[in-house]
Amino acid sequence: MLAASENQNANGMPRVLVAGCGDVGQRVARRMHALGSRVHGLRRSARPLPEGVIALRANLSDPASLLMLPPGIDQLVYLPTPDTRTPEAYRRVFLDGLRNLLAVLDTSRLQRIVFVSSSAVYGDHAGNWVDEDTPPMPMGFNGSLLLEAEQWLASSGLPATVLRLAGLYGPGRESLYARIRDGRARAPLRPTFWANRIHAEDAAAAIVHLLGLPDPAPLYLGVDNTPLPLAELYDFLAACLGAPAVPEGDAPHGIGNKRLSNARLRDSGFAPLWPDARDGYAALLARRQG
């Protein structure tokens, strides 16, 4: 039998496994550690993790590498990143990897799984409002495979909650700035094409919030309070960057036009730090330029 100190934190806080410690995963790990949890961060690379987070080097696609995982995990956050943008890579990570991981964990101990998915599962809705009750109709393999993983997890009987994130922005995500500054960005004017965003720190905060709810719903949308016309958002960023207004052009390929609602997440008690992406981007750019 394992000693009590091996099964749980001395302070009674849960033992958390963050499977996928990229940008958002590290933000989640840092927050959970600050709350007193014993946090394990799983990633393929040997790059260091935030202070206090126990690093686990493993590959979700390699079941043998997962045999060294610690016992007694109470909460699982699943948010890996495929190494390439191909159907095969997405299937390896989000379906096979999830099955491999759950096969080696003691699922009888798991109190909560948060599976981080994407609003890509919704596809196009002609600019109309979308919420958790809107039927998904993915346009690409990424949304289709994420939806398949969601459905498999829901059928497992495990205590799982899915968080479908909108487009992420935050420190280090600067390719859009370069496209606007170089005149390569385009945005449609008619019909209005809607941009849905969430700051990376708010995405991490939402995940931690869901881990702490006593009885979360099976599904939430992770997005800020303010869908924006894409042309309006791009022109705002161009002004902040001192760049010319963004020319009219085609809508982004494969995303779909929709306005995402975070009403269910807000009703659960969550409030984003950056409810409007214009304020979040402005703060990022001010810090970057200062």
Low-confidence stretches: 1-7
Strand order of the largest sheet: 3-2-1-4-5-7-11
Cα gyration radius (Å): 20 Å
Q: Characterize the overall form.
A: globular
Q: Would you tell me the overall average pLDDT?
A: 94
Taking the alpha carbons of the first and last residues, their distance comes to 56 Å
CATH architecture classification of the domain at 7-169 and 198-225 and 257-266: 3-Layer(aba) Sandwich
How many β-strands, per DSSP? 13
Proportion of residues in extended strands: 15-25%
CATH topology of the domain at 7-169 and 198-225 and 257-266: Rossmann fold
Largest sheet, described in full?
Answer: 7 strands, parallel
CATH class value of the domain at 7-169 and 198-225 and 257-266: Alpha Beta
Question: Helix and strand succession?
Answer: HEHEEEHEEHEEHEEHEEHEHH
Which short descriptors sum up this protein?
290 residues; alpha/beta; 7-stranded parallel beta sheet
Q: Would you mind describing this structure in some detail?
A:
This protein is of the alpha/beta class. The protein has a domain at 7-169 and 198-225 and 257-266: NAD(P)-binding Rossmann-like Domain (Rossmann fold, 3-Layer(aba) Sandwich). The chain contains 9 helices and 13 strands. Strands 3-2-1-4-5-7-11 form a 7-stranded parallel beta sheet, with helices on both faces. Strands 6-13 form a two-stranded parallel sheet. Strands 8-10 form a two-stranded parallel sheet. Strand 1, helix 2 (23-34) and strand 2 form a beta-alpha-beta unit. Helix 2 packs across helix 6, helix 3 runs parallel beside helix 4 (141-155) and helix 7 packs parallel to helix 9 (277-289). It starts with a helix and ends with a helix.
